[in-house]
Amino acid sequence: MTRNDVSGPLQGPAGAPANNATRADHSRFVQRVRRRHADLLPRLASGRPDARALQQLYDHLRGTGLDCGAALRVLRQLVMERLVVLDIEQEAPLQDITASMTELAEFALDTACTEVMRGLDDSHGRPQIADGQRALFWVVGMGKLGARELNVSSDIDLIYVYDQDGETAGNAEGRNRVSNHEYFAKAVRAIYNLLGDTTEHGFVFRVDLALRPNGNSGPPAVSLGALEEYFHVQGREWERFAWLKSRIVAPRAQLQDGSVMALRSLVVPFVFRRYLDYNVFDSLRVLHRQIRDHAAKRSAGHPERSNDVKLSRGGIREIEFTVQLLQVVRGGQFPELRTRPTLDALTRLVKAGLMPEATAAALAQAYEFLRRVEHRIQYLDDQQTHVLPTRDEDLDWIARSLGYPDICRFLAQLDAHREIVAQEFDILLGGAGQKECKGCSNGKNGAVATPDFDGVLTQLPPQFRERVEAWRTHPRVLALREESRTRLIRLVMRTAEWLREGRASEEAASRLIDWIEPLLRRESYLAMLLERPAVHERLLRLLGAARWPARYLLLHPGVIDELASRSMMDERFDPIV
Questions:
Q1: Which of 518, 513, 410, 506 is CA-nearest to residue 453?
Q2: Are strands 156-162 and 207-208 parallel, antiparallel or unpaired?
Q3: The pLDDT of residue 270 is above 90
Q4: Parts of the chain belonging to CATH 1.20.120.330
Q5: Residues 549, 508: contact at Cβ < 8 Å?
Q6: pLDDT interval class at 544 (50, 70, 90)
Q7: Fold of 280-429
Q8: What is the pLDDT of residues 430-472, one digit of tens each?
Q9: 73-97 as b/e, with b when 16 or more CB fall inside 10 Å?
Q10: Cis (ω within 30 of 0) for the bond into 518?
Q11: Cα maximum dimension of the chain
Q12: Residue 330: alpha-carbon gap to chain centroid
């Protein structure tokens, strides 16, 4: 794959001056705001809207007689109008736009928490824990909110957590006591309505709570204890990607409280494992397949929906998946990878030696380009969409606002970026025929139907078959999750294939059984060997080479981490020459 396509002649000129085609007022949303709030627009302090400017304008709006919800809704519209101007007419950096949107969400959530809890305290008294202290309540921002890279028309993914169960103190008369759980459930519902309901003034933010434990069927708020149990018992691999970007965003008064570390102490070991972690590959493949299938269903009969800069092939989501997969797999051993923003993570992957600088630069450039396109799509009508518009005048406005002379040049650059992203993503997950990157799957595992042990046994050489047959009733094997048992069978099948090809000896295969048995509860090792055929083969060579390395590996099975780590550092993303 060549890299110079990204920065070649298709790249639009930087610093293109604003003209009639690239004015903010092409946005129909901007037109509506200016018609309705012309007198209020000058009230927003000049420059990028920051926390101080938000507070000043909010206070002014409240002073005009607007209640909390109405003031927040009008505030959002005024801020959005300013961001369109800064982006389209003044070419503000992407980070300025996403920072302002993130600060707006944080301000709105903090304000909503204060307003809602004041009312609940009056009705039920403050929520208390055993020692009489007030129970703490955290609004956890997920995804782009947690990473401080929020879209201009994005929803906000939230999870609500409180520290301990207990009971409220009761109102002024000592009545209306409720459990802390009920108090915080009421708070969540009230915050949701305050921010998410659409009124005559619009909405503040669309709120999504689907990422909370047990999804939409789960409780609105969870205690730290319940969250810890969920992580240990039910937490799924894809949820580790979601929690990777998590951050407490409100209430502001509690952000500096040392108790916030109690939540972090649960999240970090859930997301990042101390050993090389390959369990996430299959989970990410399934999640990505579901996203692509959903996008395909949405575009069926609607070809205009197929050009989705976020979810289509080579879109923003594939850049995020590429980065997050490497962070989750390697973040246990490289703490410096535990960062939330995508662009910062790319830089850190390069410094850790896990991604070539040219690859990171290409992905970063594509990410910024696609995010800027996404914002322009959303500026048009303030809709949560990532699909290119079909009207020529809208496409032309997007192209020219990015410095391209016409739609064709813009679309050519868009295709060039997306092709590079798609190729890197396919390599990482082992797409059809691609080279295997370091620490990643060769992609052949997920598509092959896996028989049960009975079906496999008939294909094995006698000595190896005798050892594997004992696994049919082995307690540790029977206790494996279905996906881990499938991985084990596939490892047996691959080993048998190598036996037939002469790439491994029966003695090495038998010793592999001895090596795996004590590690069956460490399911990540099964995932690693399946995802890394090179490590699997190297392990077989060592087990079959002589008795002493075999004995050492059997006594110290964890040394496989070093075996995999060295090969990963040598081979990640590098072409085979």
A1: 513
A2: parallel
A3: yes
A4: 280-429
A5: no
A6: confident
A7: Four Helix Bundle (Hemerythrin (Met), subunit A) (1.20.120)
A8: 643 343 344 343 334 334 444 566 677 777 877 788 788 878 7
A9: bbbbbbbbbbbbbbbbbebbebebb
A10: no
A11: 86
A12: 15
Res. 572 pLDDT band, cuts 50 70 90: very low
Q: Do 281 and 441 meet the contact criterion of CB atoms below 8 Å apart? A: yes
Structure tokens at 372: 């800027």
Domain 106-271 has CATH 1.50.10.10: no
For residue 488, give the H/E element and its range: helix 482-501
* CB atoms near residue 38 (< 10 Å): 9
With a cut of 70, say whether residue 106 has pLDDT above it.
Answer: yes
Side-chain-side CA neighbours of residue 429 (13 Å): 25
Higher pLDDT, 485 or 362: 362
Rounded Cα distance between 338 and 140, Å, is: 17
**Cα torsion angle, 517, 514, 557, 456, sign:** negative
Specify the amino acid at residue 492: V
At 429, the pLDDT band (50, 70, 90 cuts) reads confident
- Confidence (pLDDT) at 564: 60
Higher-confidence position of 549 and 205: 205
Q: What is the pLDDT of residue 332?
A: 87
In angstroms, the Cα distances linking 45 to 48, 55, 79 are 8, 11, 10
Q: How far is CA 49 from the centre of its chain?
A: 26
The CA distances from residue 342 to 3, 87, 220, 271, in Å, are: 20, 20, 29, 16
Q: Considering the entire predicted model, what is its pTM? A: 0.77
Q: What are all long-range contacts of 560-567, with beta carbons under 8 Å and residues at least 24 apart?
A: 560/525, 560/528, 560/535, 561/275, 561/276, 563/535, 563/538, 563/539, 564/276, 564/439, 564/528, 564/532, 564/535, 565/276, 565/333, 567/438, 567/532, 567/534, 567/535, 567/538
DSSP per-residue letters across 18-86: P-GGG-GGGSHHHHHHHHHHTTTGGGSPSSS--HHHHHHHHHHHHHTT--HHHHHHHHHHHHHHHHHHH
174 or 205, higher pLDDT? 205
Give the pair of three-digit tokens for residue 165. Answer: 């169960």
* Residue range(s) occupied by CATH 3.30.460.10 in the chain: 106-271
For residue 262, the surrounding DSSP H or E stretch is helix 260-271
d(CA 472, CA 481): 14
